[in-house]
Design a protein that fits this description.
Layout (H helix, E strand, L loop, with lengths): L15 E9 L3 E9 L1 H28 L5
Antiparallel strand pairs: 1-2
């Protein structure tokens, strides 16, 4: 059975946790909980780089292909 967010101990020795609760008036309440490991954060960084670097190359290529304005 998967562990729930109410577990007291971390499931990984290097696990980091964060919890945020945002209340706006009496009607709106937002709660967020995040669990991450250093390896997971590195994986996200590699994936973001794999997406953003080619996007940058494509954007720079489009700027170079623009005809000069008079």
């Amino acid at each position: 059975m998967p562990s729930s967010s109410t577990d007291t101990g971390p499931s990984h020795p290097e696990e980091m946790r964060a919890r945020v609760e945002l209340r706006i008036g009496q009607a709106v309440a937002v709660k967020a909980t995040v669990r991450a490991t250093p390896a997971g954060l590195m994986a996200v960084a590699v994936l973001m780089g794999a997406i953003l670097v080619p996007t940058l190359w494509l954007a720079r290529g489009r700027v170079r292909m623009r005809p000069p304005t008079a």
